[in-house]
Amino acid sequence: MSPRERNLLIGVVALVVLWGAWRGVTSYRDTLASSQARLFDASETLANAQFQADLAQRALRRLERWQEQSLASDPNVAQSGYQAWLIGAIDQAGLTLDNVRPTGTRERPDAYRVLNYSVMAEGPLDAVVRFLDTFYRLDALHKLTRLQLTPLASNRVRMELSIAALIVDGAPREEGMPGESDDRLRFASADRYVESLDGRNLFTAYQPPAPPREEPAPRERRPDPPPKPPFDDADQAFLSGVVGAGSSLQAWVTVRTTGEVLRLMAGDDLSVGLLKGRVDSITPLGLIYESEGERWRVPLGESLRDGKRLGAVDAT
């Protein structure tokens, strides 16, 4: 084989080797990009599943609270029990009862049943106020759908009410009524509401008493209220994934309020909403960032603002 042929053969072999290496690198890059995309999709699916699970937990807590406030689970027991409670509340308030009668039910299967009542009673206005105080202190799922007051002689009124009360499916109470709660009203006693009616006629236009004629004192200008704090997108910025290996780990931060995805390496600047800082390090399970002289660790799947404080940044 002549030197020329040998050199030509070496050149051909080198081209084949380079072509094979290029194909191998290209295939590796394509595989890596596909794997990273699948990892990102899986991280997004996991984050959405966690969000839906949180919503379900909140809904379950609300349902359990409503079940505690429900009337008795048996409709017959609930109807007679609530009717007896209304009669007792009217009598205790000092009203004269005309009648309390059920006016029908309405049901949404597998959810709740509405019991409707009609009430008629007479008495002084302060007795009406005391009854309403008792009504709204009861920690039950009930409401007035109609309230009509008609003036009578001797400072008495006729009270006509329409009431709706709920039985929630799955309510644990078999008999009896929910208790009272002082948190439902502003004042702890009905006396405070009765005092506000002193000397007032609710069936005429209210005329406030004339103010005393005196020179008003100079008013000091009130300072402007502080501005509302701006919304911080960092509260909704979640560490949704970590890709790569070794020293080339890359953290993916999803800003849910904007849909933006930040791809960060160790040493990169970090800027989301009001949060300004720098990525200190990244691990497969989370990242550490520095902001305002403090170091914070954020686990995978958590918000940047929910990170754990590690301490001050080492000045050295």
From TrEMBL:
Basic and acidic residues bias: start-end ranges: 212-225
Annotated region described as Disordered, given as residue ranges: 203-235
The protein, known as: Pilus assembly protein, PilO
Organism: Pseudobythopirellula maris
